[in-house]
Automatic annotation (TrEMBL):
Residues 23-327 form the Gcp-like domain. Its main location: mitochondrion. Its cofactor is a divalent metal cation. One of its GO terms (cellular component) is mitochondrion. Homodimer. Belongs to the KAE1 / TsaD family. It comes from the Eukaryota. It catalyses: L-threonylcarbamoyladenylate + adenosine(37) in tRNA = N(6)-L-threonylcarbamoyladenosine(37) in tRNA + AMP + H(+). The lineage of its organism: Eukaryota, Viridiplantae, Streptophyta, Embryophyta, Tracheophyta. The chain holds residues 88 to 459 of 482 of the full protein. This is Glycoprotease 1. It comes from Ananas comosus.
Length: 372
């Protein structure tokens, strides 16, 4: 089996070719980090144009690097949601054009399922059921993966995701956003004292597995503004030598509490999950924020204390990529879960397949039983 994966749900245009045995034949990512740094966020129309500009090149590069032509593929996998529909459409149109022209089946992939399942490419003996923590720019999910395509959502964010909090904090601190807010903040936090500023841990009175990062974001913004580093969303000066220590202290203090919130929710989720599926052995942590070393290290402690194992893909497979889409395509393709090639005259009509809002699984609340 040979599958081409295409990803355009947010701000990265990515494509990859993966073999059924997990071998990655190529992996191409074109990032809009420069646009993001300039405008401070994703503007859908601008992101769509950026995808449209590079999609053909990115896909061609993925095929060239794999030394393949479309004819040799078994299927095309493409993210159909969740995400910005303008952006998703660029990838889905491309996938449908290829599938229509070369008579290939299409697998429509859930972006967050792909973040989770790529762990099974990295760790080939990772079996269902497993627990998953998916942390990225737009999502904060705790899921119990029972079998392929069958997920129970133990927790989600009631407002912002942790990646959004990293990005905003980095911006308010005036960090260089071109390499991404998260990585810049992680780097600066290494120089800071994580106990210097007291932020409160979110949601402690709620004994569930949900997340909230809006309140922490506000606390951090007030801390930054009260120290005159930022006013009205605009950082006042670039990180100069003089106040670098102060910025680092804020970064480290933010990171400590942001991750403590993850730790507390994971601890509870492990307890919940073991009640539902006592055979669970692994916690998979994936999504852009999972490339953070501090996050990985702290979560590893929690997981080991509970006698489980942490599975965390390498950073290039944690942030958005085409490999995870191709791999999830392979998993579904094997079970016969795919669409036939689109008729050539309808191939462009991407609207047919899009699912911009698409929950990953049924919500769980403690006490309610879950079908097995
Ligand atoms: P989603 O998956 O929710 O649709 P997305 O696709 O934009 O969002 P990903 O590429 O999976 O997100 O993750 C991007 C997020 O990960 C950004 O918020 C980014 O700041 C964050 N991130 C990346 N690297 C790090 C890091 N080292 N530390 C903290 N955050 C990071
Ligand atoms: Fe993502």
């Amino acid at each position: 089996v040979l599958v081409l994966g295409i990803e355009t749900s947010c701000d990265d245009t990515a494509a990859a070719v993966v073999r059924g045995n997990g071998e990655i034949l190529s992996q191409v990512v074109s990032s809009q980090a420069d646009l993001l740094a300039r405008y401070g966020g994703v503007a859908p129309k601008m992101a769509e144009e950026a995808h449209a500009l590079v999609i053909d090149k990115v896909v061609q590069q993925a095929l060239d690097n794999a030394n393949l032509t479309e004819k040799e593929l078994s299927a095309v996998a493409v993210t159909i949601g969740p995400g910005l529909s303008l952006c998703l459409r660029v990838g889905v149109s491309k996938a449908r054009r290829i599938a229509g022209m070369f008579r290939l089946p299409i697998v429509g992939v859930h972006h967050m399922e792909a973040h989770a399942l790529v762990a099974r490419l990295v760790q080939r003996d990772l079996q269902f059921p497993f627990l998953g923590l998916l942390i990225s720019g737009g999502h904060n999910l705790l899921i119990l993966a029972q079998s392929l395509g069958n997920y129970v959502q133990l927790g989600t964010t009631i407002d912002d995701a942790i990646g959004e909090a990293y990005d905003k904090t980095a911006r308010w601190l005036g960090l260089d956003m071109r390499k991404g807010g998260g990585p810049a903040l992680e780097e600066l936090a290494r120089e800071g004292d994580a106990n210097s500023i007291k932020f409160s841990i979110p949601m402690r009175q709620h004994k569930d597995c949900n997340f909230s990062y809006a309140g922490l974001k506000t606390q951090v913004r007030m801390a930054i503004e009260s120290r005159n580093l930022c006013v009205d969303d605009v950082p006042l000066s670039a990180a100069t030598f003089d106040d670098r220590k102060l910025r680092a202290d804020i970064a480290a203090s933010f990171q400590r509490v942001a991750v403590l919130h993850l730790e507390e929710r994971c601890q509870r989720a492990i307890e919940w999950a073991l009640k539902i599926e006592p055979s669970i052995k692994c916690l998979v942590v994936s999504g852009g924020v999972a490339s953070n070393q501090y996050v990985r290290c702290r979560l590893n402690h929690i997981v080991e204390e509970n006698g489980l194992k942490l599975v965390c893909p390498p950073p290039s497979l944690c942030t958005d990529n085409g490999v995870m889409i191709a791999w999830t395509g392979i998993e579904h393709f094997r079970l016969g879960r795919y669409d036939p090639p689109p008729p050539p005259d309808e191939a462009e009509d991407a609207q047919l397949d899009l699912r911009p809002r698409w929950p990953l699984g049924e919500e769980y609340s403690e006490g309610r039983s879950v079908a097995r």
